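Objective 1.3, modelling of assemblies. Example input:
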Amino acid sequence: MKNESRSHCRSPRQVCAEGDNDSLDTVRRIENAFFDLSRPNTAPRRMLVEKLAELARSGEAFSTDDLWQDLRAANGRIGRATVYRSIEQLVESKVLDRVELSDGSHKYRVCGGSHHHHLVCTLCNCVVDFRECLSAQKFEEIGRQHGFTVNDHKLTVYGTCSRCLKSGGK
Amino acid sequence: MKNESRSHCRSPRQVCAEGDNDSLDTVRRIENAFFDLSRPNTAPRRMLVEKLAELARSGEAFSTDDLWQDLRAANGRIGRATVYRSIEQLVESKVLDRVELSDGSHKYRVCGGSHHHHLVCTLCNCVVDFRECLSAQKFEEIGRQHGFTVNDHKLTVYGTCSRCLKSGGK
DNA sequence: ATTGCTGCAAAACCTTTGCAAATGT
DNA sequence: ACATTTGCAAAGGTTTTGCAGCAAT
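Predicted structure (tokens):
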């Protein structure tokens, strides 16, 4: 009885998300991220690139386990540890965003290159990007007021998506 | 037998935080949060109230385990599960904030009543409050643009605090 | 041949749960 | 007495780690 609200979010079609990435570009970015750290173009990495390009297109958010299960079902042999290790690298390389859900758990999402933040549905946990934010100067000012050097920030908005609103949260 | 170690508003190693809560008010708020759910004024709850009031004064952020260890060391007999259960309730009651650190882990912090967000040092993980934010209308607009009904948001800024800057991160 | 990624299984970690006993009202 | 909370220990779930073997360069 753990994550009670994730059940209907696992479905293949995730309507409340934007597929606004150019997928060729995404493939390139993922490949570069792997390549930057080490050379080998291995089978698991190819599987990951392919699957992540697909997830970039749909805009769907996924857990580490989701990704592992999907790859394992579709292509066969891949280890959980490889998926964990790859996700870690790709988050580091800014290819993936780690999105905090309202219950404190998290999912990942392939992110476009430009500055954005996340709108998260507290019922189905779908995720949408948006671009509004405070200005860079404002962040600098916030930092200055407390003696911080600011280098990153994260804005997450929680609410109910249109699908869940219509279906009354069911 | 209570340990009155409340004399200083500065915790041993967490200087970069604001102790801006009125502690009497904080005690009241924590007690109410417990009381709202059920009557018993038990020993563990009194221990928690006392310790949390102290943490409110210092502004220090803490993990569940930190809190358990501290209580256990100072006052003796308390179960991990009790601490987990209490923290969960207090987060629900908005007495505690859950703060996401830059590495994806989290800590808790006693929060003042008014609207605020967190500035987190990526080196020492200290946490400071600030009040700047987007306007309520802006959030509504963000929601409207994507068919969401917005009901909450979280803004976290990451950087390096003055202490860590001075010490070069050591 | 060398390098280092990969899969597996075990270990480590963190959090939740079940239940008898203790505690507050 | 009664209703709840508590502590303990066990279970649960997730992530990391160690290492031998393998694949890519």
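The domain at 11-166 of chain B is CATH 1.10.10.10 (Arc Repressor Mutant, subunit A).
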